[in-house]
C-alpha cells in the first residue's frame, strides 16, 4: 500500500514534468491584435442617414460651384474670327493649297473685329487650329529635347525623323514639330492706332529656363526642300523664341489654341479692331480651320460653360437622389440589423 | 537497464529470424483490427512487391566494406544531398524558365518583344519591359532566397561527420564527412546520432541485434521502431570489418517506398533475405541503442527520404479557374478595342490619303536623304496592321499583369494569419496550423462536401481499454468511482519499482478473479486472456526514468494505439510486459516474472485481419495466441465445443460496438507435438524462402490459425475529440454535407455517428449492405424510391404547414465497403450518387483507402461542388489527394496524411474556424481583389482608348508611358494587396455565430459573371467620366498633352482608390495608410515623371517612384502592426527616421537638379481641381447609388450581419468589442 501511494504521488509529479517539457518550447503563436486580425478598426455602414447626407452634401457643394463657374464663364468676353476661307482671294478658292504654297502671292489680309462687350486687360490673343493633330503619334515623337536644351548636343537628332537633317547637316531645332511652326502673324490697330501685342512671357517660364537652352541657336532650319512653317532668326537663342516654345508644347486635342500674345489695354464695347494678318500657314491641305481669338480670362480660364453646367447637373442629380432616397426610405423602411431579414430566416416564411 | 538482468540467450529453439515489425502492407481500415492503425502503405499488394525475387538486372550489388568494388565506375551518387534547385550559374535560365511556364508571363513577354520593333515602338524600351521585369524580379528574389536557405542547409547536412570503417582491414572507424560516404562502406552510428544514409544493419550493441530508431524526421512519428541486424552478421562483424568474409548484398534499386525493402545477403555461401526491418534510413535517429553498424546501400539522392521529398501539391483554386474565364472575356474586349482602333485608323488614312504628304503632322515622305522615300509609311494595309499590334501593346494592361503577383502575395499574407491564429493552435499536440499549399486558400470558403475519416480525426485515437468479455462473461463493471486505487502493479527490479506509464481502470471483480488462488476454470481463462493481451502484439517496452531514482516508468512503444491500450490493460491486471526481443518475452505475471520463448509470429495482414504469436509457456506447452477482427475470428474458432460461449461473446461484442467501442476477439490454441512440428517445418521453410516469402508465410499462418478456442473479446474506447459534435453540427448548419468514411464496423460507425451528432434519432436510416452487384442494384433502387417518397411527403408537408423550417425528415445513408466494391466504378455509381446527394448524412463503413478516394471522386467528378477531405492516417492519403482541399490532422498516426495535405492542423474542430472564418475571409478577399483588379485596369485602358479616338487613331497616350506601365504595378497595387490581406467583411464572432453565412462562398456570391459584367460597365462609365469631363472642360484651350495626361492619370488613380475605399469593410490604420498613401505617392510620382519627361533620366524617375512607394509601404507596415504589437515598436522609429532622412535628401536633390514645376502650371488652376472633383462625383454616383440601393433593399446576409454587428452593440467603437469576441470565441473552441 505504501508503495502504491508513493508511486502514485511520484507518478503524478513526473507526469506533470513530462507535460511541462513541451510547454516550454510551445509553438503557440504569440497573441497580438495584428496577428489575430483584430486591429482596432472602423466598420462604416451605408445607413440611409449616410446616403442622404452624402448626396445632399455633394449637391450643396456642387450647385454653388456650378453657378459660380457659369457666372465666371459668362463674364469672359471672347471674339472668335475664322479667317482661313476669308483670307483666300475669291479667284483662288478652288485651289487654296496652290494659293498658300505659292510664295509670290501676297498673303496679307485685313479683318475687322467688333468688340461687343467691354474687355478688360489683359486680353489674350490666341490662334486656334482645328483638325490639326498635334497629338499624332508621328508628330509628337518627332523632336529631340536634348538638342533643344544644350548647345553641345546640336548633332543629337535621334527621334527627329523625317526632319533630322537637311543637305547633310543636322537641323536645329530638328523634328516635325519645330518644322511645322505656325507662321501667321497678326497686327492689331484700334482707331488707326496700333495696339501693341506683348509677345514676351507667353511661354512657360520653366520651359524657357530649362528646356530651351540660352546658348542654342537655330541652325540649318527650314532649309530642306519642303518648308513646313515659320523660319527662325538664327541670332536669337531658342530660349527667347517664345512662339517656338509655345508651339512645341504640343496640344492635347486636335482642336487647340495657342497663345499668340497679350494686349495690355482695355477694349470698350463698340470698338472695332482692324487686324492685319499674314495668312501663311497651310491648313488647307487637310481642311483645317484657322481662327483668331481675342479673349479675357476669369479665375476659371476662358469661356466654357461646360463645367458650370456639369456641376449644376451633378448637384441637381444629387439633390434629386437625396430626395428620392428619402422618399424610398420612408415608404419602404427596413430596420437595420434585423436578423429576420437573414435569408435562412426569411425564405421559409416567404414560401 | 532493462537489459541488466537479461537471461542468457536460449539456444533452443532458434529465435525467429524475421522479427515482428511494422506490417508492410495496407490495412483495410484504420481501426478494424489490432496492430493495423499504424500501417500506412498504399497499394494493397505491396507485400508481394517487396518480397519478389530480384533479377540481377534490377538489383544493386553491394560488396560490404568495399566501396571500390561496389561502385567501380563511381556511377552511384555520392552521399551529398542537394535539395537546392539552382546553382549560381543556372539560376537565371532555370528560374526564368520556371516562371515563364505561366502563360500570362509569355503574353507580356511577347508584347514587350513586339514593342522592341522600331515600327511598333510605343513605349520606350525600358518602359515596356519594366512591369514584366519587376514581376519577374520579385519572384526571382523570393526564389533565390528560398534556394539560398536550401543551399545553406545542404551544406550543413553534407558537412556532418560519420564514423566510417577504415579500408584495409584495420577494423578502425574514422570520421568522414557525410558527403564522402559511398555505397558499400561500413558505418558505425552511436546513440542519438543521425543516420547518414540508408544502411542495412549488420550488428548492434544489443545481443539480439535490435536497434531502435526514431523516424520523426522521416515520417514524423515519435515512437521508437525496432530494426534488426541478422544473427548471421551480428557475430561475424569482426570478420566482415576485418575483410575476412566476403559479404555481398543484393538489393533492389532505389525507390521511394519508405516501408518496403527487399534484399538478399550472401554470406559464407548462404543467402539471407532481408526485409524492411533490416534497414535504417537516412534521417532517422538511433535511440536506446549504444551503437549500430551498418553498410551503406543507398546514398545521397538515392536515399528514401530524398526520393520522398517531393514538393507540395500544386492545385489551382476554383476562383482562379473562374478568373481565367473572365481573362478570356478581357482578351476579347482587348481584341475588340484594338480592332476598332485599327479599323478607324484605316478609314481615316483612306479618307486623307491624298493629304498625307502635306499634312504637317503626318509628312509621309522623308526628304532629308535626297530621294523622297516614304518615312515610316508602308501603305494603308500595313499601317492598319501595325496599328493593331501597337494597340495591343498600349492596351496590354487590360489583362492585369500585377494580379498574378498580387494574388500570391495576398495568399501569403492570408496564410500568415492562418498560421498565427491562436484559435488554430492545438495545445495537446503543440502543433500550429500549417498551410502547405499556398494557392488554394480561397477554396476554403466554398466547400460543400466534407469527407472525414473517423479514427484519429473525429476521435482522438488515444485508445483506452474499457471492457472485457472473457469466455462469454461480460466484465463491464469497471466504472469504478475510485480509479487507480490499489490496482497498480509494480514490478520490483532490484531496488526499483517499475510501473506502466499509463494507468487503466481495472474491473475489481476481474481483479479478484485473477488473484483468486486455486485453479478455477474462470480464473484460468482470465489469466490466459490477459496473457494473450500481453503477448500477442508487437509492442516494445521502454524503461524511462523519473525524478525519483527508485521509480521507473514502463513506456510501451508500438505502432498501433490499440495494441498499446491492450498491453497497458494487461499490465493493469497484473500481466506486465517487461521485455521483448525477437526471441523471447518477459512478462511479470501477477508478481511472478516469467520468460516466454517466442517461436513464431504471424504479422497482421489485411486478408486475414488477425495476427498470432506462438510462444512456449513456462510449463513447456506451446501455445498459439490469436487476436483479430470478429469477422475474421469467428471463422476460425472451434465451434463444436464452445458454441454457447461464442454466442454470448457475440452478444457482448454487439453491445460493445453499439457503444462505439472497437472490439477484438482473442483466441488460443495449444499446439500438440505434431501440430507444432508440422507448423515449425513449414514456418522455417517459409521464412527462409527467397521467393514469395510473404505469401508462403501467410499460408502457414492461415493453416495454423484454426480450430481456436475462444478466450474472449476486448473493447477499446477511442474517445471523441473535443468539440467534434458541435463542429459537425456547425458544418451541417452551414450547408455542408458531412460524410464519414471509416474502416470500422457498421455498429461502431453508427454509434460514433450518434455520439458526434452526425446521426440523430429523427433521421431515417437507409442501410445498403450487400455482397453482390445485383443485390446492390436492388437495394439502391429501393433506397432511391424511399428517398423520393420522403421528398414528396416532405414537400407536401411543407406546403400544408408553411413556416416550419425542418419539414423534410433527414435521411442518412449507411453503406459498407463490400457494397462499394460492387458499386464504385460500375454503372451503379450514378445511382449511388443520386441517392447520396439526397441524403443528409452518408456513413461509409469498412472502406478501404482506395475506396475512400473513389467516394470523393464520385462527388468531385459529378458536381461542381467543392470537396474537402480530412484525415489523419496513411489510409486517408488517397482521399486527401483526391479532394479539392485536403486537410491533414497531425495526430497519433504519423505524418503521412499531413505530408499529402494542403492544410494541416491538430484537431477536427479547427475545421470550423478554418472554413467559416479564414475560408470565408480568403474567398471574400480574393474574389474582391480579382474583380477590382479587372475593374481598375479596365478603367485605365478605356481612358486611353477614348483618347486614342482623338489622336487620329494613332495610339498616342497623353498619359506618359511611365505612368501607364507603373499604373498597375505601383500606383494601385499596394492598396489592393493590403485590402486583400486585411479586410474583413464580418468579425470572427459573427461568422462563427451564423454558420449559414458560409453559404456566400458555396453559392459563389462574391465572384460571378454578373459581378464581372457590372463592374465592367462601371469601369466604362467611370472611364467616360474621367476622360470626357476634362476633355469638355479643356476643349478649345491651350492645354497641352502632358498636362492633360497628368490630370487623367491622377483622376484614374484617385477614382479607383476611392472605389476601393468605398468597398472596404473594415478600416484600420494600415488600410488608411495604404489607400491614402498610395494616392499621395502617385501624385508625387506623376510630378516627378512629368518633370523628367523630357530628360533621359527615365531610370531616375522610376527609381524616384519606387522610392516613394517603398517609403509609404514602410510607413504603413511599421505603423500598422505596432498599434497592436508592443515588441515591434522599438525598431520602427529608427528605420523610419533613416528613411525620412534619405527621403529629405532625395527631395532636395530632385528639387534643385530637376525642377518639379511643370505640372504646377495645371495644378495651379482651379479648373484642374474642379475637374478632379467633378470626375469623382460623376464617376462614383452610379456605383454609390446602386450600392446604397442594393444594400438597403436587397441586403445580403453579409450586409444584415454587418448591421447586426454595428447596431447590435450600441457602442460602435470596436476597441471594447473585439477582446470580448476573442474571449467568447476561445471559450467556445478551445474548451
Strand order of the largest sheet of chain B: 16-37-36-35-17-31-34-33-32
Structural class designation of chain B: alpha+beta
End-to-end separation of chain B in angstroms reads 41 Å
Specify the number of helices of chain B.
Answer: 41
Shape of chain B: elongated
Question: Biggest interface and its residues per chain?
Answer: A-B, 119 and 125 residues
Oligomer: heterodimer
Q: In angstroms, what is the radius of gyration of chain A?
A: 37 Å
Helix content of chain A: 25-40%
Describe the largest sheet of chain B: 9 strands, mixed
Keywords (chain A): Membrane, Transmembrane, Transmembrane helix
Transmembrane segments (chain A): 50-72, 306-331
Main location (chain A): membrane
Biased composition (Low complexity) (chain A): 1-17
What does this structure look like?
The complex is a heterodimer of chains A (351) and B (1231). By secondary structure, chain A is an alpha+beta fold. Chain A has two domains: 44-76 and 303-345; 78-296, no CATH class. Helix content of chain A is 34%, strand content 16%. A five-stranded antiparallel sheet of chain A has the order 1-11-3-9-8. In chain A, strands 2-10-6-7 form a four-stranded antiparallel sheet, with no helix packed on it. In chain A, a hairpin with a 2-residue loop joins strand 4 and strand 5 (169-170). In chain A, helix 2 runs antiparallel to helix 9. Chain A is extended, with a radius of gyration of 37 Å. Chain A starts with a helix and ends with a helix. Chain B has 1231 residues and is α+β, with helices and mostly antiparallel strands. Chain B contains 41 helices and 37 strands. In chain B, the strands form seven sheets. A nine-stranded mixed sheet of chain B has the order 16-37-36-35-17-31-34-33-32, with helices on both faces. A nine-stranded antiparallel sheet of chain B has the order 19-18-30-29-28-27-26-25-24, sandwiched between helices. Chain B has a six-stranded antiparallel sheet with strand order 3-2-4-13-5-11. In chain B, helix 10 (318-351) packs antiparallel against helix 11 (379-394) and helix 10 runs parallel beside helix 28 (911-948). The longest helix of chain B is centred in the last third of the chain and has 38 residues, at 911-948. The radius of gyration of chain B is 37 Å and the shape is elongated. Chain B starts with 45 loop residues before the first helix and ends with a helix. Classes of the chains: A alpha+beta (351), B alpha+beta (1231). At the A-B interface, helix 1, helix 2, helix 4, helix 5 and strand 4 of A face strand 14, helix 12, helix 33, helix 34 and helix 35 of B. Chain B: Residues 40-51 have a biased composition (Basic and acidic residues). Chain B: Mg(2+) binds at residues 453, 455, 872, 876. Chain B: GO terms for molecular function: ATP binding; ATP hydrolysis activity; ATPase-coupled intramembrane lipid transporter activity; magnesium ion binding.
Amino acid at each position: 500500500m505504501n508503495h502504491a501511494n508513493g508511486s502514485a504521488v511520484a507518478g503524478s509529479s513526473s507526469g506533470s514534468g513530462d507535460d511541462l517539457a513541451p510547454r516550454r518550447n510551445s509553438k503557440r503563436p504569440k497573441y497580438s491584435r495584428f496577428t489575430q486580425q483584430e486591429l482596432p478598426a472602423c466598420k462604416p455602414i451605408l445607413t440611409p442617414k449616410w446616403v442622404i447626407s452624402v448626396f445632399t452634401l455633394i449637391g450643396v457643394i456642387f450647385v454653388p460651384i456650378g453657378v459660380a463657374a457659369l457666372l465666371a464663364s459668362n463674364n469672359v468676353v471672347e471674339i472668335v474670327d475664322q479667317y482661313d476661307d476669308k483670307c483666300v482671294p475669291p479667284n483662288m478658292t478652288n485651289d487654296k493649297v496652290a494659293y498658300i504654297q505659292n510664295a509670290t502671292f501676297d498673303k496679307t489680309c485685313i479683318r475687322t473685329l467688333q468688340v461687343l462687350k467691354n474687355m478688360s486687360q489683359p486680353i489674350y490673343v490666341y490662334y486656334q487650329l482645328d483638325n490639326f493633330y498635334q497629338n499624332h503619334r508621328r508628330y509628337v515623337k518627332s523632336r529631340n529635347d536634348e538638342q533643344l536644351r544644350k548647345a553641345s548636343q546640336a548633332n543629337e537628332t535621334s527621334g527627329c525623323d523625317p526632319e533630322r537633317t537637311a543637305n547633310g547637316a543636322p537641323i536645329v531645332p530638328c523634328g516635325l514639330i519645330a518644322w511645322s511652326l505656325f507662321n501667321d502673324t497678326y497686327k492689331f490697330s484700334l482707331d488707326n492706332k496700333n495696339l501693341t501685342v506683348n509677345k514676351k512671357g507667353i511661354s512657360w517660364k520653366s520651359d524657357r529656363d530649362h528646356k530651351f537652352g540660352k546658348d542654342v541657336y537655330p541652325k540649318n532650319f527650314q532649309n530642306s526642300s519642303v518648308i513646313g512653317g515659320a523660319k527662325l532668326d538664327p541670332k536669337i537663342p531658342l530660349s527667347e523664341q517664345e512662339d517656338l516654345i509655345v508651339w512645341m508644347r504640343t496640344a492635347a486635342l486636335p482642336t487647340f489654341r495657342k497663345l499668340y500674345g497679350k494686349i495690355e489695354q482695355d477694349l470698350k464695347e463698340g470698338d472695332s479692331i482692324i487686324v492685319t494678318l499674314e495668312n501663311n500657314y497651310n491648313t488647307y491641305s487637310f481642311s483645317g480651320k484657322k481662327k483668331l481669338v481675342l479673349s479675357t480670362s476669369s479665375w476659371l480660364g476662358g469661356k466654357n460653360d461646360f463645367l458650370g453646367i456639369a456641376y449644376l447637373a451633378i448637384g441637381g442629380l444629387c439633390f434629386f437622389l437625396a430626395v428620392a432616397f428619402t422618399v424610398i426610405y420612408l415608404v419602404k423602411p427596413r430596420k437595420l440589423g434585423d436578423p429576420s431579414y437573414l435569408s435562412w430566416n426569411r425564405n421559409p416564411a416567404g414560401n | 537497464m532493462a537489459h541488466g538482468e537479461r537471461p542468457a540467450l536460449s539456444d533452443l529453439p532458434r529465435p525467429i529470424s524475421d522479427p515482428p515489425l511494422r506490417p508492410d502492407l495496407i490495412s483495410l481500415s484504420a481501426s478494424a483490427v489490432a496492430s493495423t492503425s499504424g500501417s500506412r502503405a498504399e497499394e494493397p499488394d505491396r507485400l508481394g512487391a517487396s518480397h519478389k525475387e530480384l533479377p540481377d538486372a534490377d538489383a544493386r550489388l553491394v560488396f560490404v566494406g568495399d566501396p571500390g568494388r561496389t561502385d567501380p565506375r563511381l556511377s552511384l551518387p555520392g552521399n551529398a544531398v542537394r535539395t537546392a534547385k539552382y546553382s549560381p550559374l543556372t539560376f537565371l535560365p532555370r528560374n526564368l524558365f520556371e516562371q515563364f511556364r505561366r502563360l500570362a508571363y509569355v503574353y507580356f513577354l511577347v508584347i514587350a518583344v513586339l514593342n522592341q520593333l522600331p515600327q511598333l515602338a510605343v513605349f520606350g524600351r525600358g518602359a515596356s519591359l519594366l512591369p514584366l521585369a519587376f514581376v519577374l524580379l520579385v519572384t526571382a528574389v523570393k526564389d533565390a532566397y528560398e534556394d539560398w536557405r536550401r543551399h545553406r542547409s545542404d551544406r550543413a547536412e553534407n558537412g556532418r561527420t560519420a564514423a566510417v570503417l577504415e579500408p584495409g582491414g584495420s577494423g578502425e572507424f574514422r570520421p568522414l564527412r557525410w558527403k564522402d560516404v559511398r555505397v558499400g562502406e561500413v558505418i558505425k552510428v552511436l546513440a542519438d546520432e543521425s543516420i547518414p544514409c540508408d544502411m542495412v544493419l549488420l550488428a548492434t550493441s544489443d545481443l539480439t541485434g535490435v536497434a531502435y530508431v526514431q523516424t520523426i524526421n522521416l515520417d514524423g512519428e515519435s515512437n521508437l521502431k525496432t530494426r534488426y541486424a541478422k544473427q548471421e552478421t551480428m557475430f561475424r562483424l569482426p570478420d566482415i570489418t576485418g575483410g575476412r568474409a566476403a559479404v555481398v548484398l543484393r538489393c533492389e534499386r532505389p525507390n521511394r517506398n519508405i516501408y518496403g525493402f527487399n534484399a538478399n545477403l550472401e554470406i559464407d555461401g548462404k543467402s539471407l533475405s532481408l526485409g524492411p526491418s533490416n534497414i535504417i534510413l537516412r534521417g532517422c535517429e538511433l535511440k536506446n541503442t549504444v551503437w549500430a553498424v551498418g553498410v551503406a546501400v543507398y546514398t545521397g539522392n538515392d536515399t528514401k527520404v530524398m526520393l520522398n521529398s517531393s514538393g507540395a501539391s500544386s492545385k489551382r483554386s476554383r476562383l482562379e479557374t473562374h478568373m481565367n474565364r473572365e481573362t478570356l472575356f478581357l482578351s476579347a474586349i482587348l481584341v475588340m478595342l484594338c480592332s476598332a482602333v485599327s479599323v478607324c485608323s484605316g478609314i481615316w488614312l483612306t479618307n486623307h490619303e491624298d493629304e498625307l504628304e502635306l499634312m504637317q503632322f503626318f509628312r509621309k515622305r522623308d526628304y532629308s536623304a535626297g530621294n523622297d522615300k516614304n518615312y515610316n509609311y508602308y501603305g494603308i494595309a500595313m499601317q492598319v496592321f501595325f496599328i493593331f499590334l501597337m494597340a495591343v501593346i498600349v492596351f496590354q494592361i487590360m489583362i492585369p499583369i500585377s494580379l498574378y503577383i498580387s494574388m500570391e502575395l495576398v495568399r501569403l499574407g492570408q496564410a500568415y494569419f492562418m498560421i498565427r491564429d491562436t484559435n488554430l493552435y492545438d495545445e495537446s499536440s503543440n502543433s500550429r496550423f500549417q498551410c502547405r499549399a499556398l494557392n488554394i486558400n480561397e477554396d476554403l470558403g466554398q466547400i460543400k462536401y466534407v469527407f472525414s475519416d473517423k479514427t484519429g480525426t473525429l476521435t482522438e485515437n488515444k485508445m483506452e481499454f474499457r471492457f472485457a468479455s472473457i469466455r462469454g462473461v461480460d466484465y463491464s463493471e469497471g466504472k469504478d468511482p475510485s480509479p487507480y486505487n490499489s490496482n497498480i502493479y509494480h514490478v520490483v527490479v532490484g531496488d526499483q519499482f517499475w510501473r506502466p506509464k499509463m494507468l487503466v481502470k481495472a474491473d475489481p471483480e476481474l481483479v479478484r478473479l485473477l488473484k483468486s488462488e486455486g485453479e478455477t476454470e474462470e480464473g484460468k481463462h482470465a489469466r490466459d486472456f490477459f496473457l494473450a493481451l500481453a503477448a500477442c502484439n508487437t509492442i516494445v517496452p521502454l524503461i524511462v526514468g523519473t525524478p525519483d531514482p527508485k521509480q521507473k516508468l514502463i513506456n510501451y512503444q508500438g505502432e498501433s494505439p490499440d495494441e498499446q491500450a491492450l498491453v497497458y490493460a494487461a499490465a493493469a491486471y497484473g500481466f506486465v510486459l517487461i521485455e521483448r526481443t525477437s526471441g523471447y518475452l518477459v512478462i511479470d505475471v501477477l508478481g511472478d516474472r516469467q520468460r516466454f520463448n517466442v517461436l513464431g509470429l504471424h504479422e497482421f495482414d489485411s486478408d486475414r485481419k488477425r495476427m498470432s504469436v506462438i510462444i512456449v509457456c513456462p510449463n513447456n506447452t506451446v501455445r498459439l495466441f490469436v487476436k483479430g477482427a470478429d469477422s475474421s475470428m469467428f471463422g476460425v474458432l472451434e465451434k463444436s465445443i464452445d458454441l454457447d460461449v461464442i454466442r454470448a461473446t457475440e452478444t457482448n461484442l454487439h453491445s460493445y460496438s453499439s457503444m462505439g467501442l472497437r472490439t477484438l476477439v482473442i483466441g488460443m490454441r495449444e499446439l500438440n507435438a505434431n501440430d507444432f512440428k508440422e507448423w515449425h517445418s513449414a514456418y522455417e521453410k517459409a521464412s527462409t524462402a527467397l521467393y514469395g516469402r510473404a505469401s508462403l508465410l501467410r499460408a502457414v499462418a492461415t493453416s495454423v490459425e484454426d480450430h481456436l478456442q475462444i478466450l474472449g473479446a476486448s473493447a477499446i474506447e477511442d474517445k471523441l475529440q473535443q468539440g467534434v459534435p458541435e463542429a459537425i453540427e456547425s458544418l451541417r448548419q452551414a450547408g455542408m454535407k458531412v460524410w464519414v468514411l471509416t474502416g470500422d464496423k457498421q455498429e461502431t460507425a453508427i454509434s460514433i455517428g450518434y455520439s458526434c451528432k452526425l446521426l440523430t434519432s429523427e433521421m431515417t436510416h437507409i442501410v445498403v449492405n450487400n455482397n453482390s452487384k445485383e443485390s446492390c442494384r436492388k437495394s439502391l433502387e429501393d433506397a432511391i424510391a424511399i428517398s423520393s417518397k420522403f421528398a414528396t411527403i416532405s414537400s407536401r408537408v411543407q406546403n400544408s404547414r408553411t413556416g416550419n423550417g425542418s419539414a423534410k425528415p433527414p435521411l442518412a445513408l449507411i453503406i459498407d465497403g463490400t457494397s462499394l466494391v460492387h458499386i464504385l466504378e460500375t454503372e451503379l455509381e450514378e445511382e449511388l450518387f443520386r441517392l447520396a446527394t439526397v441524403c443528409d448524412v452518408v456513413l461509409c463503413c469498412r472502406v478501404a483507402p482506395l475506396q475512400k478516394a473513389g467516394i470523393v471522386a464520385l462527388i468531385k467528378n459529378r458536381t461542381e461542388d467543392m470537396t474537402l477531405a480530412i484525415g489523419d492516417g496513411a489510409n486517408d492519403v488517397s482521399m486527401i489527394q483526391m479532394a479539392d482541399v485536403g486537410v491533414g490532422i497531425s495526430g497519433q498516426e504519423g505524418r503521412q496524411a499531413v505530408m499529402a495535405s494542403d492544410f494541416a492542423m491538430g484537431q477536427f474542430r479547427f475545421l470550423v474556424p478554418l472554413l467559416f472564418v479564414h475560408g470565408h475571409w480568403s474567398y471574400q478577399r480574393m474574389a474582391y481583389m480579382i474583380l477590382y483588379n479587372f475593374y481598375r485596369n479596365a478603367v485605365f485602358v478605356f481612358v486611353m482608348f477614348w483618347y486614342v479616338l482623338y489622336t487620329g487613331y494613332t495610339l498616342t497616350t497623353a498619359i506618359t508611358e511611365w505612368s501607364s506601365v507603373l499604373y498597375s504595378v505601383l500606383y494601385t497595387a499596394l492598396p489592393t494587396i493590403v485590402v486583400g490581406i486585411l479586410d474583413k467583411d464580418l468579425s470572427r464572432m459573427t461568422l462563427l455565430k451564423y454558420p449559414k453565412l458560409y453559404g456566400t462562398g458555396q453559392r459563389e456570391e462574391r465572384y460571378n459573371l454578373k459581378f464581372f459584367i457590372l463592374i465592367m460597365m462601371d469601369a466604362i462609365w467611370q472611364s467616360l467620366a474621367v476622360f470626357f469631363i476634362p476633355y469638355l472642360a479643356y476643349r478649345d484651350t491651350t492645354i497641352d498633352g502632358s498636362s492633360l495626361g497628368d490630370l487623367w492619370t491622377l483622376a484614374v488613380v484617385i477614382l479607383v482608390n476611392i472605389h476601393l475605399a468605398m468597398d472596404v469593410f473594415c478600416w484600420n490604420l494600415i488600410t488608411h495608410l495604404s489607400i491614402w498613401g498610395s494616392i499621395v505617392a502617385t501624385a508625387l510620382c506623376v510630378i516627378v515623371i512629368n518633370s523628367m519627361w523630357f530628360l533621359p533620366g527615365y531610370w531616375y524617375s522610376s527609381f524616384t517612384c519606387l522610392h516613394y512607394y517603398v517609403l509609404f509601404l514602410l510607413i504603413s507596415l511599421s505603423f500598422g502592426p505596432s498599434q497592436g504589437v508592443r515588441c515591434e515598436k522599438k525598431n520602427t522609429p529608427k528605420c523610419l527616421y533613416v528613411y525620412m532622412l534619405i527621403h529629405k535628401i532625395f527631395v532636395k536633390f530632385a528639387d534643385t537638379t530637376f525642377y518639379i514645376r511643370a505640372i504646377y502650371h495645371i495644378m495651379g488652376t482651379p479648373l484642374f481641381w474642379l475637374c478632379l472633383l467633378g470626375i469623382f462625383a460623376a464617376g462614383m454616383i452610379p456605383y454609390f447609388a446602386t450600392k446604397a440601393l442594393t444594400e438597403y433593399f436587397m441586403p445580403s446576409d453579409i450586409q444584415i450581419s454587418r448591421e447586426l454587428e454595428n447596431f447590435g452593440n450600441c457602442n460602435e467603437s470596436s476597441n471594447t468589442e473585439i477582446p470580448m469576441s476573442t474571449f467568447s470565441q476561445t471559450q467556445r473552441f478551445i474548451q
